[in-house]
């Protein structure tokens, strides 16, 4: 059996989409056949979700303007999503075929998620009139906002789970580790000034103590220098990936290498407040139910897409112990348009099994709208499964039900 599994894994890694092109063939000669695909992806490039995106005193500079309302998918972001859909469409063309009923597209109610889903659907299936499914626009979709409105969360349990992710020395050690990057952000942003600074004097991000706090309902977040750094770093990433003139990316003082390095703050924040097991299991549960249905329900379409947010990606990653590198960003940072792709395969001797991929553009592919390279979709290790790079369908179902 180990030889069979090894052969299948080697086939998938070396030639990941060959079987997709032949997925309508009968299962024979132990050639893997792709049966279902579920894509869970983050929306595309957007501006900050609000004009004032950091606390008063965190910056003394006027940041570059955007050509769309705050939080909306940008025009460039839409073109980048089309490139992702072209890539996925090429990889799964033989699998999708021309049957419009084989494709389902679902999105959260924000403009950026709805527009991302619309562009993705139209691009991957240009001959189909894809209806993007969503709940009423004045309601909350639990699948994408699982903590919204919850009042019964065990804040002590969630805080304990988050605290376990801290290194020895806690937040002080993290501030020491990231001091050079925090200093870089100070220089770029002009941070910091009263009333943000202690003792009403000028300071830097490294002087702003970071700690956990409990939001309404019991959800854990971080406040302080590392939280502000995460927000600033994400804005710089969005400026660069949106194709803005380099003079508008961090006021001309930030290189692409800086953007890559600073993305660690975004990944760090999610590692503390979205990926810890107790938090992740609650956050991922509604979408993982959709993943289960998409892979295993008899009446599910062959190809399902769910467009949500970076927090959704981090929750699922934490719940299933999945780790990725999105293009050239920091490990586990969910990139704009990045996707977790769940594939259900079948072979004559191995039966049903699941492979999980992460698909992402690099920063420059987002910025220049270049075609994605073949290795943009990578098979992820599944530590909770014996085969690591694949998981028997039965085992994967148990993992989903455990969340």
Number of helices: 14
Which CATH architecture of the largest domain is right? Answer: 3-Layer(aba) Sandwich
Helix-strand string: HHEHHEHHHHEEHHHEHEEHEEH
Q: Which residues form runs of ≥5 with pLDDT under 50? A: 1-15, 21-25
CATH fold descriptor of the largest domain: Rossmann fold
Structural class call reads alpha+beta
CATH class of the largest domain: Alpha Beta
Per DSSP, what share of the residues sits in E-state strands of 2 or more residues?
5-15%
Number of strands: 9
CATH homologous superfamily of the largest domain - what is it? Phosphoglycerate mutase-like
Nutshell version of this structure?
The protein is α+β, with helices and mostly antiparallel strands and 403 residues long. The protein has 14 helices and nine strands. The chain has two domains: 2-54 and 65-148 and 277-401, 3-Layer(aba) Sandwich (Rossmann fold), CATH 3.40.50.1240; 155-273, Rossmann fold (3-Layer(aba) Sandwich), CATH 3.40.50.
What are the main properties of this structure?
403 residues, alpha+beta, Rossmann fold, 2 domains, seven-stranded mixed β-sheet, two-stranded antiparallel sheet, 14 helices, 40% helix, globular, disordered N terminus
Task: Set out the fold topology.
Elements: H1 2-14, H2 18-21, E1 33-42, H3 75-91, H4 93-96, E2 103-107, H5 111-124, H6 155-163, H7 170-177, H8 179-189, E3 211-214, E4 220-223, H9 225-241, H10 256-273, H11 277-296, E5 303-308, H12 310-320, E6 339-347, E7 351-359, H13 363-368, E8 377-379, E9 391-392, H14 393-401
Parallel strand pairs: 1-5, 2-5
Antiparallel strand pairs: 1-6, 3-4, 6-7, 7-8, 7-9
């Amino acid at each position: 059996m180990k030889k069979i599994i090894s052969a299948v894994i080697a086939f998938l890694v070396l030639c990941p989409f060959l079987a997709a092109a032949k997925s309508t063939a009968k299962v024979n000669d132990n050639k893997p056949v792709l049966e279902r695909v579920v894509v869970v992806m983050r929306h595309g490039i957007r501006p900050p979700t609000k004009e004032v995106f950091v606390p008063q005193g965190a910056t003394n500079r006027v940041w570059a303007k955007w050509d769309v309302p705050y939080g909306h998918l940008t025009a460039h972001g839409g073109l980048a999503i089309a490139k992702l859909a072209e890539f996925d469409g090429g990889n799964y063309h033989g699998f999708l075929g021309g049957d419009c009923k084989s494709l389902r597209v679902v999105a959260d109610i924000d403009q950026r998620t709805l527009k991302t889903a619309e562009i993705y659907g139209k691009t991957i299936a240009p001959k189909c009139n894809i209806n993007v499914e969503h709940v009423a626009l004045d309601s909350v979709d639990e699948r994408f906002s699982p903590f919204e409105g919850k009042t019964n969360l065990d804040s002590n349990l969630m805080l304990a789970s988050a605290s376990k992710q801290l290194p020895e020395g806690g937040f002080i050690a993290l501030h020491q580790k990231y001091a050079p990057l925090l200093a870089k952000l100070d220089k770029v942003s002009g941070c910091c000034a009263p009333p943000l600074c202690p003792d009403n004097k000028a300071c830097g991000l490294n002087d702003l103590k970071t700690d956990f706090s409990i939001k309404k309902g019991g959800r854990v977040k971080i406040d302080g220098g590392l939280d502000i750094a995460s927000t600033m770093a994400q804005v710089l990433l969005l400026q660069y990936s949106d194709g803005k003139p380099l003079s508008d990316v961090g006021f001309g003082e930030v290189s692409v290498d800086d953007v890559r390095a600073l993305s660690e703050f975004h990944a760090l924040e999610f590692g503390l407040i979205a990926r810890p097991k107790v938090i992740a299991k609650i956050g991922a549960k509604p979408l993982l139910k959709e993943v289960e249905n998409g892979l295993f329900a008899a009446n599910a379409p062959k190809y399902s897409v769910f467009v949500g947010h970076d927090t959704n990606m981090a929750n699922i990653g934490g719940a299933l112990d999945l780790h990725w590198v999105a293009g050239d960003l920091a490990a586990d940072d969910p990139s704009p348009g990045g996707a977790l792709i769940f594939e259900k395969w079948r072979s004559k001797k191995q039966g049903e099994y699941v492979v999980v991929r992460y698909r992402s553009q690099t920063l420059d592919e987002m910025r220049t709208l270049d075609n994605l390279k073949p290795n943009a979709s990578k098979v992820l290790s599944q530590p909770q499964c014996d085969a690591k790079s694949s998981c028997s369908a039965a085992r994967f179902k148990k993992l989903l039900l455990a969340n």
